[in-house]
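Might you be able to consider the sequence and fold that I enclose below?
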Amino acid sequence: MGWWPDDPEAAPGLVPTPRSTEHENDTDGETALLLAAHGGDVQAAHQLGRHFAQRGDRSAARHWWERAAAAGNLDSAYNLGIWHEKHGTPAEAVRWYELAANAGDVEAAVNLATLLLDQHGDVPAARRWFETAAGAGSRAATRRLALLCEDGGETKAAGEWHRRAAMDGDLASAHDLGFLAYASGEEDETLRWWELAARGGHADAAYHLGLFLQANRDPEGAEAFFRLAARNEHPGAASQLGGIALSLGDLRTARAWFERAACTGRIDDQRTAGFVCVEMSDARGAGHWFSRAAAGGDPEAAFNFGLLLIAEHSDLQGGQHWFRQAAQAGHHRAAVELAALLSAAGFSREAERWLADPPSPPWSRTTEPELVARAELAVAAVARRGGAPLRVADLTEILGTWDLVTRPLRDHTDVTAWLTERSGLPSGAIEHLASVRATLLRPGGAPWPTPGEIEHVLVTARALRSGTQAGQAQ
């Protein structure tokens, strides 16, 4: 139910609930309240406002709350703030919230600050009222102050406010403190705050702590926190547990976990559930998950769905359709298979076009779990406060490529010079790759990379890989 009973326009969660009093359920009739209110009883006037609000008589509710508020009733002033916020008169809402807040009403101060920030964009005024409310013990205001400081680049102040909120029981702020510590390279603090939030029931904190432990080569600890997150319905944790079961050869358990994650719309897990179904000889299940992922735009799933349609149903037309979808999205093998189908069907000219310029094969090498975990943590850290999004696959490719091309080295003291000499690439490009890799593996020494940096570094990584593969071929 919204602010008014049976109000279809009400927006639950956007506007606070009106405040009642301990006398709300008194059995006194409306006539007695009217007599008392007309006789100057301020509390009776407030109760009348609530009474008429519950009946849906907005005009009468406002009238009696205004009388009570003018006589000093803070609950009525607070409710009038809500009344005007709900009905699109924010200037009046500010006036009434301000009246109550100036008299020491903490909830009114929080609502006033929120309104000034969200609808007026008045950060300084909002911050003053949040500080007032936080000083009076409002945990919600303390957290909002922390987020305001983060948005303003005041990392130290943000950490202090988050710490106050976290110590007061705010699990979201404890989770945020873990990320602030992780970005600063303070791993003990990262562990402390994520574990506090995770054990309090914060699913994201449990999941990120699992990744953190995985990145630090503690698979047993990571699995324990993935299970804790999964109990709180975290789809990423279900995916991780599916991967663990798959590595142990337990296809039935792996399928259950991947399907649990896939049902939330995660395309990667839909595709992986399809692969597990293939391993279990369940063509129907594989087709279901490949088709869902393919419809979501996943080229690998589209390619495999095409293969399945041809192998299981002799559906050449369907196979051609999904090969084309995958090839247009840059899938190398789909382009080759599409060309073969087109050639067999007599469309040799189109087949030649696909063979003449097929998409480059993507990075498909299995990367160490700790590197994947570092990539995912970096992506989450950047995205947490609305940063420019990065892709886990791109960061994994960067880390995996460095691991691949430096594997022949026994002494890594001058790896940059060695790679420069071996590849013929500019030393600056190699150094940039090394710098981004170092930030991903050990945050705190430099800011997180931007999407533009990642694009430049990927060019270097792919060039290094090409040189390594050419050398191996010789």
Remarks:
- The radius of gyration is 30 Å.
